[in-house]
Amino acid sequence: MHSFLLPILNFIHGDGITVLPQMELLLLALGILIFDFLLEKNEKHWNAGLALVGVSASAFGLIMQAKRFNLEHQARPGLPGLPGFQNTVVIDGYSVFFSAIFLAATGLVILLSVRYLDLEREQEGEYYALILLACIGMMFMASGTDLIVMFLGLETMALSFYVLAGYLRREKHSNEAALKYLLLGGFSTAILGYGFSLLYGLTGSTSIWEIGNILDRRSEFVAGLGMADWLLVLSFVTIAAGLFFKVAAVPFHQWAPDVYEGAPTPIAAYISVASKTASFALLVRLFFGVFGRSEPMWQGLVAGVAIASLTWGNLAALTQTNIKRLLAYSSISHVGYILLGLVAANETGLTGMVYYLIAYGFMNIGTFAIVVVLRQRGIIGDELDDLDGLYQRNPAAAVLLLIFMLSLAGVPPTAGFMGKYFVFLALIESHHPALAVFAALCMVPGLYYYFRVVVHAWLKKPGDVPAPVMSNAQAIALGAALFVTLAAGLYPEPFTRLAHYALGIQR
């Protein structure tokens, strides 16, 4: 037995530690698929418990990673990260932080899914297995330092979401959402893959650190000749287009409203939060690791996409009557705010981006959780009219909805306000006052459509619809979302420290 365990322990203490959380999720995902065959139809909800065990085990593995990285970092203060598998993945504050966000979002979505799937009569093990596989892909997107690993992580996440978006097989909207997501997603993947191939052709390497060093020397040489490096520009534009699709930035946002509306509501929340966060994690590592010296080249492009996302997202949300479509256009406007932090490209801007992703993740999952609570037998519950009189029917849900709407609108003292504050401050510090003023003005239409939701919940008369009932699992998920939404607004310092840890900023 000792001779059998020794190689496993040596592997875990070596390269294995760099992928330990992903391996634990994979084992539990496969376990769910096997365990599902042993369960009767009325016992399928136990799959959710096994999925939560997987999330917990992966979180323990992540803690081991963080301890290992912190010990090595204390021994060698200048250490950027612990590489593994021939420098294709890395353990650093960035990967640990984002992996923790992915696990938190995964756990909340699993809690929201149990009763929802019971109502839809779609309680199957593959649903939870796909959620865990999507989380694995996102973790590799954050920890990968090789183009191939990043691409495989992105596709693992995307393929899982294509299936999950169409999980309600008897619903035409769900089938349509999955098909549209698959076709447009495949198109964006082709563009991104072309950009990656250009980088490989220019540098002869797939390691982003080697690519960055080679491109720096190439940029100096080309600049000395007084020429423009059009191949580098083309590679950046194609990579940016592929990633802007994943975060649903204008003009690559067309898929978002239909997918959010048609996908199962917990999956819409997962795509909105986790997929967007993972794509931003990949985008920031690529932009600064590969195109860091070319910042003047891409700053204007990113600013233009941010302005377009803020404008279209807010204007399109004004006319929506479906809550999930409204949240889809709302998420497009939030992408604009996050991209403005990238435009500032200073310490405050990057801190603001990471902080905003924390705030957005929990307040958006909280809002989708209310829509999940509204789902009852025979009642879909995702139209604004379904919110009528929510305060009389379920006061707790109405209060929670109010807090999440205030945070999404950026009203103090919520996390959404602090996220916008950091972005505005970063723009002013980086001498972009016009962008800061424009972003502040874009909050005005947001106040209208968010408070429109509040009006339906608090001021409209309730109809004949029965009062929505909140399950214990949904209450736990809503409690966690509420805590972060308020705590990050009232006492932001711990969350800014987390952002500094992710970015490697010493304080």
State the main characteristics.
two-stranded antiparallel ribbon, mainly alpha, single chain, 21 helices
Nutshell version of this structure?
This protein has 507 residues and is mainly alpha-helical. The protein has helices spanning 2-13, 20-37, 46-75, 93-120, 125-143, 147-165, 172-203, 208-224, 230-246, 255-262, 265-289, 295-317, 323-344, 347-374, 390-393, 395-409, 415-429, 433-441, 443-458, 472-490, 493-503; strands spanning 82-84, 89-91.
Description:
The mean pLDDT is 90. By secondary structure, the chain is mainly alpha-helical. The chain has a domain at 291-507. The longest helix has 32 residues, at 172-203. Strand 1 and strand 2 form a beta hairpin. The protein has helices at 2-13, 20-37, 46-75, 93-120, 125-143, 147-165, 172-203, 208-224, 230-246, 255-262, 265-289, 295-317, 323-344, 347-374, 390-393, 395-409, 415-429, 433-441, 443-458, 472-490, 493-503; strands at residues 82-84, 89-91. A two-stranded antiparallel ribbon has the order 1-2. The chain starts with a helix and ends with a helix. Helix 14 packs antiparallel against helix 16 (395-409). The protein contains 21 helices and 2 strands.
